[in-house]
Design brief:
- The chain has 10 helices and no strands.
- With 172 residues, it is mainly α.
């Protein structure tokens, strides 16, 4: 722990920075704990949602995908404005486990609030962002799912959406 956390263990920001530092040196179990503590202590919803996204990502890499999904669901309760990122990671997890229908549902939820829709009039978000989830990520998941399910027309449709989203992200 840091000196700052010993002085004030309820400071969410310091827990986040600790988690980020620990993840950077592959001390992932400790990083997960720190990100979870950040979410527990946060006063800002966006910070808690993002900390849980980071925790879920590390849990997924470790193979604890059910715990990862639980963190993502809790992240939505902290700040649903991060649904593109939270739902995209859930869709990725389900795709990896070949649960194509759940992957499709979560990819669609991610897509609804991503940057491919004209939703810039919504409340501005903080600096946290995962561009892949905001643009082509959900479409890539949908393309893969529909291809695996044998729906060629839908798979091709979402492949075109991937290409359009990728171009938009590169040249906003």
């Amino acid at each position: 722990k840091t000196v700052e956390l010993e002085q004030d263990p309820t400071n969410a920001r310091n827990w986040y920075y600790l988690g980020d530092a620990l993840a950077g040196v592959n001390r992932n179990d400790e990083a997960i704990e720190a990100f979870d503590k950040c979410a527990e202590n946060c006063k800002r919803g966006d910070e808690g949602a993002w900390a849980l996204l980071r925790s879920a990502s590390l849990l997924e890499k470790r193979g604890d995908w059910k715990d990862a999904l639980a963190r993502l669901a809790t992240g939505l309760l902290h700040d649903s404005g991060y649904s593109p990122e939270l739902c995209w990671l859930a869709s990725w997890i389900y795709l990896k486990h070949r649960n194509f229908y759940q992957a499709i549902y979560f990819a669609r939820m991610s897509m609804i609030n991503g940057r491919m829709n004209d939703l810039d009039h919504l409340q501005p978000r903080s600096f946290y962002s995962l561009p892949l989830a905001l643009y082509e990520g959900p479409f890539e998941i949908l393309h893969c799912c529909y291809a695996n399910l044998g729906h060629k027309k839908l798979a091709d449709y979402y492949l075109r959406k991937v290409q359009k989203a990728r171009a938009l992200r590169q040249h906003p």
